[in-house]
Amino acid sequence: MLCLQKILFTLVKSSGSYIRCKNQLIVRSARKVTFRTMSKLYELIPRQIGCEVVGINLQTENRPEVIEQIRKDVTSHRILLFTGQGIIDGARHVEISRWFGDLESTFYKHEKSPHPDVFRVSNDATEGCRGVGRTGWHIDGSFQPAPFGYSLYHMVSVPSDGATQFLPLTEFIENLKTETFAKWNQLWMMSDRRSGPIHPLIYKHPLTKKLVMCLHLGMTERFISNYGGSKEKLLSIEESEQILREIHDEITVRNQKLIYRHEWQPGEFIISDNLAVGHEAVPETQYSRDRVGLRVLHRTTIQGVHKPNKD
Fold this sequence. Notes:
By secondary structure, this protein is α+β, with helices and mostly antiparallel strands. It has seven helices and 19 strands. The strands form four sheets. It has a ten-stranded mixed beta sheet with strand order 1-2-3-4-5-6-17-8-19-7, with helices on both faces. The protein is globular. It starts with a helix and ends in a 9-residue tail after the last strand.
């Protein structure tokens, strides 16, 4: 690791000014300052949301201490991006997913999926499931008693256009006007799927204790105000639809700068804390194969163990 630090230090010294402080290399340029977190295991380079991981080969990595650090860093940074990983097959994708718990597969099984627990998404119905992620901003598994804890994505075939957008939920909540937060903080969402579990719209992340949201703008039947309290009220369909529009506008208009649009590159693999970031597939993900090329995304989801609550 000292050798790696020395190499990085030398490269920076030859190309611009620098500062070293403990486990960070701070690179100064005419335009920006970049913080690179150094550890004995790998390097983290901050992105708009989360970090890019440098120095890990997911095809072969199995060291317990590395797996434990990756788990901690997903919780700390919410998204970890691994680049240059080549094509990770279905069995290996599932192995990596099990670092975070038991898999839970609630989706349609496509005949070309490389593994029963890998959801295969595409812009070509013969290659994967279409229309996925286009029902509105959401977290995965809001229809479950406990939403999925983590989602792991791997782009197997990269089109010329077809990004995934991510939203940091804590910062989004922090940006709300006082009256908007007070209103939303009293709401609970009813899923339109399965038994229709009821979850608080705003609650504390079970691990970080930061405020996050349980939301799915395309799979919410109704909202309940003050659920379980003396002033409990089931909002009408019209009132619930208005709340959904308010959330959408708050994200896409007033907090557009928070949205991270990830333009996929070959060999990329993303691990996300599903409870801490919302996401949505952009419209271009549905463009035809003839227009943008073949898009194939593999995704796994990890069974949730924490039911959202107000405690």
